[in-house]
Amino acid sequence: MTVTGSCHCGKIAYELDEDLPAEGMACNCSICRRKGNLHHFTTPDKFALKGSRDDIATYEFNKHIIKHHHCKTCGCAPFAEGVGPGGKAMVEINLRCVDGIDLDTLKVTQFDGASM
């Protein structure tokens, strides 16, 4: 199955070569608690950007290992790219930007990023 998602205006769209996630993660770190993302992590080989990188603005902070992407037009943050635990490349999908997902049915795990 292919999962699709996008920012609000559609300029940043993607396809994910996976089944629709049934679980997500909420984090309370300084940026996640402000943005309110529900995270799903995957590998870059399963992710295909369908919009132009010219429409993406990027924010990095702290150790600069995650590129927090958002749309220059509408401000939504549908995905991020970076390095996960163990040094492997990863893509984070904001489940709030996934098409056709019922957020109320997700099993959400809380992550204490504020303590890191």
UniProtKB/TrEMBL annotation:
Keywords in alphabetical order: Metal-binding, Zinc
Pfam family, one: GFA
GO MF assignments: carbon-sulfur lyase activity; metal ion binding
Gene3D superfamilies in the record: 2.170.150.70
Stretches assigned to the CENP-V/GFA domain: 3-112
SUPFAM superfamilies linked: Mss4-like
Record family assignment: Belongs to the Gfa family.
Entry protein name: GFA family protein
UniProt organism field: Sphingomonas cavernae
